[in-house]
Specification:
Elements: H1 10-27, E1 34-41, E2 52-57, E3 68-72, E4 78-83, E5 88-95, E6 98-105, E7 111-117, E8 119-120
Parallel strand pairs: 1-7
Antiparallel strand pairs: 1-4, 2-3, 2-5, 5-6, 6-8
Length: 135
Amino acid sequence: MVHKKHLSLKPFLFTGLLLTLFALGVSCSKDTKCKMEVSVVDADNKPVANALTKVSAGPAPYEVSTYKAEGNTNGQGIFSCEFDYPAVCKATAEKDGLTGLNSVSTKEGETVKVTIVLHQQITEPEEDPDDGWDW
């Protein structure tokens, strides 16, 4: 008499179920990063390549800010960065003595865009020791 070996389908069904659940979990994962695209332009609205760009979040100065990013713009005048949580961000840019700044609120799972226009830095005039009056 020949004995037939019966294979159980349970391990195959279980494995198939696990793979299906894993595939659904991966495909349904939500991107929650807060992305920012900073565009740096000159006064003529032309992109400025290689501008030093700094982004910080919160009321603290850039140096002590919890969330911060720094880098140079690409050939199209774009600097991109991302943070883990939404925040109100300040973005600054500078190149060849020109500076600019702007602010924007990031949003979870979205890319927000902000433009910085570079201009000459405004400086306070030096005070005249005699108060500017000629007597």
